[in-house]
Specification:
357 residues, DUF3829 domain-containing protein, signal, DUF3829, mainly alpha, single chain
């Protein structure tokens, strides 16, 4: 099964009647002309858009903003599912296993990760927009199939968190543990089936929007924004390369270094371009970045490059990951030179990117 990753929230550039997309005719007038141009002549030189044209352009802008809001709501849902929800699931199954009966240690004591109220808002926001215009032909129907599966899974995970937090197993001799484990397995199976198709369709839509946004950045000479996005895309390609090879911390020494290094070299060049443009104060201001936010993102981007370099170092040294560190996702993500650490670092970088939007 392919690993699902976080996506970028995007904000497409809209050039309308009400923005500085046109040039004022008075800028080219000579001093002699300036005093003699009458209102009638000005009206002739610059036709006033009809109310119908203004209404159509305003409607187009409104539709674009509605589409953007809905798309980004789906992106937020995706990022919750591939982020916090996956962490909660990993935490649960590492504690209790994936067999039909939960694994209960003799000296059991555990506190599970939980889903927050903010996460609930993310879920509800996406599903609230699901039936509203504009329509995403393939994605909206799949979101409808995903909703009951996701709602059931998050509900039972919430019950499990509460049960173990208040030590309910002391009261019922782990009877509730067995019941909830069965429900979680069933809910997770239904969620996995629905979510994989959702991820696929959203990924296709994300690719389409990314191509449009990249072209807009090039057309508008927004090379800093272009370099930021290219770094993110090429970092994801590096993660996908490891995923395609089926390489994890367990078998990191089986990594095809030729294929990995080719994509790593591209990422390294991306970082050089990003660093160059991010130190151009004029460009930073013109492209609307906040210096502190951009600096934070660039620092995090460097961590992605470092995480990739650590993988190369580990493979070159033929240094396996110790068995102890393979026991949990947390340890995998904190060990130098593992795909899991690279993935976690990339996930944090995507968060930084989305915070700049």
């Amino acid at each position: 099964m392919k690993t699902n990753v976080k996506l970028f929230a995007v904000g497409l550039l809209i050039c309308t009647l009400f923005t500085a997309c046109s040039t004022r005719t008075s800028d080219s007038a000579t001093p002699e002309q300036d005093n003699s141009v009458t209102a009638a002549a000005a009206a002739t030189a610059v036709p006033t858009p009809s109310p119908e044209v203004i209404d159509e352009e305003a409607l187009a802008e409104e539709n674009e903003m509605l589409e953007l809001a809905k798309y980004n709501a789906y992106v937020d849902l995706n990022n919750f599912m591939t982020g916090r929800l996956q962490d909660v699931l990993n935490d649960y199954f590492e504690e209790f296993g994936v067999e039909s009966a939960p694994v209960i240690d003799k000296y059991f004591s555990a506190t599970l990760l939980s889903i927050t109220k903010y996460d609930d808002e993310t879920i509800n926001n996406a599903f609230d927009l699901m039936d509203k215009a504009p329509n995403f032909e393939k994605l909206d129907p799949q979101a409808k199939l995903l909703e009951p599966a996701l709602q059931e899974l998050t509900a039972v995970l919430g019950e499990a968190h509460e049960y173990y937090e208040i030590k309910g197993y002391v009261d019922d001799g782990f009877a509730g543990s067995k019941t909830m484990h069965s429900r979680i397995l069933k809910a997770n199976a239904a969620y996995e089936e629905a979510s994989q198709v959702f991820f696929t369709y959203l990924g296709e839509l994300a690719d389409e929007r990314t191509k449009v946004e990249l072209q807009q950045y090039k057309d508008n000479n927004q090379l800093l924004k272009y370099s930021v996005m290219m770094f993110m895309l090429d970092a994801e390609k590096l993660a996908a390369e490891m995923d395609d090879q089926g390489v994890l911390a367990d078998n990191i020494l089986e990594l095809d270094m030729v294929k990995f290094k080719a994509k790593y070299d591209v990422l390294t060049e991306d970082l050089k371009q990003l660093t160059t443009y991010s130190t151009d104060e004029t460009r930073v201001t013109q492209e609307g970045f906040e210096a502190y936010s951009l600096e934070s993102f660039v620092d995090q981007a460097k961590e992605v490059k470092i995480a990739a370099a650590e993988i190369i170092e580990r493979v070159n040294k033929k240094q396996r990951v110790e068995e102890f560190y393979l026991k949990s996702s947390f340890f995998r993500e904190t060990q130098k030179g593992t795909p899991e650490k690279f993935g976690k670092t990339l996930s944090l970088t995507i968060d930084r990117y989305n915070q700049m939007q």
